[in-house]
Amino acid sequence: MMLKSQQNSESAEALAIQALGFVASDPELLPRFLAVTGIEAHQIRRAAMEPGFLAGVLQFILAHEPTLLRFSEAVGIAPSEVGIAARALPLGGEDHERSI
Predict the structure, then answer these.
(1) Are residues 9 and 93 in contact, defined by beta-carbon separation less than 8 angstroms?
(2) CA gyration radius, the chain
(3) CA neighbours closer than 13 Å in the CB half-sphere of residue 94
(4) Which of 14, 17, 38, 64 has the fewest Cβ atoms nearer than 10 Å?
(5) Residue 30 and residue 10: Cα distance in Å, rounded?
(6) What is residue 89's DSSP assignment?
(7) Sign of the CA dihedral 68, 15, 59, 4?
(8) DSSP state of 100
(9) What one-character DSSP code corresponds to residue 52?
(10) What single-letter DSSP state applies at residue 98?
């Protein structure tokens, strides 16, 4: 059971990193992401190491349906997978603490 949880967490982290790349490469999304998070572009690499940052990237994607649909299509997954991944990450959902 622990192995499956670890695999889910690793898959979720990989998806969140893809999402960060998707946001960073989009000239409209990146400024919006920076404004919403309050971080500056040069701080992203350091911020990405903080607990909850990657879940926050996925939550940013989830918050805007057109962005969610574009991202899901770009990486070849169902939109629902983004929410599942967000909840598998630290600070990504209310149940994360209990699932550890």
Answers:
(1) no
(2) 13
(3) 0
(4) 38
(5) 24
(6) S
(7) positive
(8) -
(9) T
(10) H
Q: How far apart are CA 2 and CA 4, in angstroms?
A: 5
- 3-state SS record for 16-49: HHHHHHHHHCCCCHHHHHHHHHCCCHHHHHHHCC
d(CA 61, CA 70): 9
Tell me, what's the pLDDT at 1? 46
At 3-36, the pLDDT tens digits run 456 668 899 999 999 999 999 999 999 999 999 9
Under DSSP, the state recorded for 94 is: T
62 neighbors 72 (Cβ within 8 angstroms): no
Confirm whether pTM is higher than 0.90: no
Q: Which amino acid is at 59?
A: Q
Residue 75 backbone dihedrals phi, psi, to 5 degrees: -100, 0
Q: What is the spatial distance between Cα 82 and Cα 68, in angstroms, rounded to a whole number?
A: 8
3-state secondary structure of 69: helix
